[in-house]
Design goal:
The complex is a heterodimer of chains A (about 140) and B (about 425). Chain A has about 140 residues and is of the alpha+beta class. In chain A, about 45% of the residues lie in helices and about 15% in strands. Classes of the chains: A alpha+beta (about 140), B alpha/beta (about 425). The structure holds pyridoxal-5'-phosphate.
């Protein structure tokens, strides 16, 4: 099954969509639904090596680098719905991108635009920040 | 009034004279500036009191007054400001000693809070008194602050940490406790009120039993102080540790109460100014209590702020506050039990201030985020009490924790908000 994040579902599309949602309820419902559109991560991949530590909610990430196209793809999941939705937003920006594209992308600006910047703060303990750091690290290794 | 531990319960005696009436409650709330705000466009409902309590204007004013008028170092200056600062500093100690019914003011040692108080005991009393094979008893519901300092002590001395089990309802297993005491542990360290479950432990009885077995007793009072006036002599414990910020005072200040005999025998911990009587390179002698344990410039403003909190509490009708809190918690319990999908975590008979729960299969963090959007501040997670969460096989809970300034309407709003949360998850 193809992963629409980064191809059909892009950061620009999300910014557009979210821009139309002017109350918190529709915004959070949208985010939660977005999380449900992430391809399912196989349970066998949810192991300590793929778990990001130090978060209240559990966040798993498995990166793949495809040499031929020089693109990075990610499998991600979380046991909390809102965090999963936020991960989906991150995927719209980072999935199926080259390391250079990832490193150039201004994630803070992106989250600020959606009014969700608070969730990127490390104090939220939701793993989003470590997820972003991890992805940027993988991009650096492969650039 | 002094609330005596075992015989009282938050949540039963609702009949007596009315708790706070609406105008009293409004007047009370008006004294807390932080409560007068909106978050995410909704009036703030602050249900994270177990993490820290809000501060009355009287405390904020005392801090401002100190910094604007009296700021000076204590115990050393030869000038008027130093006199005023020192006087405020020592008056706060006297006020707190009286409040706790401590035998004497010098048995109150200023610390940064509960955590530092417990570490002080572990590093001074513990290191000087314990050796290989000695046992320390803690309960399974302790906050990490009353576990890790003892683990460090065990590593340093070879002492052993033993755990009093806790039932599924969140009560200490008193039978096992009695059994563990026959092994004659050197120390029993137990929380007065559990921050994760709300359980009130029968600390007076536990202390008596421990003393009969020859053990020294430390009580973690962090979560009891916000709810009623604690009487350390009535409990009979050897040490009582607590934090100012959880009892309407400033952050960064707290205290350790200790029995004089023990405090005097304990070696100092931090070395520096103020804690010495005389220093030379040949021999240094230490200052007397309480200064022996207060090296360096203390948190003067914090002490004065905490003194103001005590003074403010003394001027309140604490009995009415207790009844109001009893009634709030009982009201919250009843609504939680009627709410399809809520599992209450911590169902002890005697509880104070805490409604800990799970909502269906929802992740506590999701629940917390969606409550926050509705203006309701709760805490989610393991509440620094991972062992009890592990025992219950849950990663954490949603915790609404109450103070006397909370209202029944706010509890109603919590459950309305939870209905909305259910529609999301
Ligand atoms: C039962 C209990 N003990 C100890 C502590 C630690 O208090 P502090 O962080 O103020 O030192 C807390 C704070 O959450 C607590 O609830």
């Amino acid at each position: 099954m193809g992963n629409p994040f980064g191809s059909e579902i892009t950061s620009d599309i999300l910014l557009d969509d979210i821009g139309f949602l002017d109350d918190w309820e529709t915004r959070y419902r949208y985010i939660i639904d977005l999380g449900k559109r992430l391809p399912e991560m196989s349970e066998s991949l949810k192991i300590p090596e793929t778990l990001l530590g130090g978060c209240q909610s559990q966040v798993w990430i498995v990166p793949h680098f495809e040499n031929a196209t020089r693109t990075l793809t990610f499998e991600v999941d979380s046991d909390a719905f809102i965090v999963k939705g936020l991960l989906a937003m991150v995927m719209a920006a980072y999935n199926q991108k080259t390391p250079e594209q990832i490193l150039q992308f201004d994630i803070e600006h992106y989250f600020a635009e959606t009014g969700l910047l608070r969730h990127l703060s490390p104090t939220r303990g939701n793993g989003l920040k470590s997820m972003v750091k991890r992805i940027q690290g993988v991009a650096k290794e492969n650039s | 009034m002094a609330r005596v531990d075992t015989s009282t319960s938050m949540g039963t005696n609702l009949s007596a004279s009315a708790p706070l009436d609406e105008s009293e409650l409004n007047a009370l709330r008006e004294q807390f500036p932080t409560l007068q705000q909106s978050v995410h466009g909704k009036p703030l409902i602050y249900f994270d009191n177990a993490a820290t309590t809000q501060k009355p204007r009287a405390v904020i004013d005392a801090l401002q007054q100190y910094y604007c008028n009296d700021n000076s170092n204590v115990h050393r200056g030869a000038h008027l400001l130093a006199d005023r600062a020192t006087q405020g500093f020592e008056e706060a100690r006297i006020a707190l000693a009286k409040y706790l019914n401590a035998e004497a003011a010098e048995q109150i040692i200023w610390t940064r809070g509960t955590t530092e108080s417990i570490n002080l005991v572990a590093q001074t009393w513990g290191r000087s008194q314990l050796s290989k094979g000695d046992e320390i008893l803690v309960s399974a519901m302790e906050h990490h602050a009353n576990i890790v300092p003892w683990q460090l002590l065990c590593e340093a001395t070879g002492a052993l940490l033993k755990v009093i089990p806790v039932s599924g309802d969140g009560e200490l297993d008193l039978e096992v406790y009695a059994n563990l005491l026959t092994r004659r542990p050197k120390l029993v360290a137990i929380t007065h009120v559990s921050n994760a479950l709300g359980t009130i432990n029968p600390v007076k009885q536990l202390t008596e039993q421990a003393h009969a077995a020859g053990a020294t007793v430390l009580i973690d009072g962090a979560q009891a102080m916000p709810h009623w006036q604690v009487d350390v002599q009535d409990i009979g414990c050897d040490f009582y540790a607590f934090s100012g910020h959880k009892m309407f005072g400033p952050t960064g200040i707290g205290a350790l109460y200790g029995k004089r005999r023990l405090l005097e025998a304990m070696p100092p911990w931090h070395g520096g100014g103020e804690m010495i009587a005389r220093v030379s390179f040949e021999k240094t002698t230490y200052n007397e209590l309480p200064y022996k344990f207060e090296a360096g410039t203390p948190h003067i403003a914090g002490v004065i702020g905490l003194g103001a909190a005590v003074q403010w509490l003394n001027a309140q009708n604490r009995e009415a506050f207790c009844r109001h809190e009893d009634s709030l918690l009982a009201y919250a319990h009843a609504q939680a039990d009627d709410f399809k999908g809520i599992t209450r975590i911590g169902r002890a008979r005697h509880k104070a201030g805490v409604l800990s729960f799970l909502l269906n299969q929802s992740h506590p963090q999701d629940v917390g985020t969606l409550l926050d959007q509705q203006g309701i501040a709760v805490r989610t997670g393991h509440h620094c009490a991972m062992p009890i969460m592990d025992q219950y096989r849950i990663p954490g809970t949603v915790r609404a924790s109450f103070a006397f300034y909370n209202t029944h309407q706010e509890v109603d709003a919590l459950f309305r908000a939870l209905h909305k949360v259910v529609s999301f998850l």
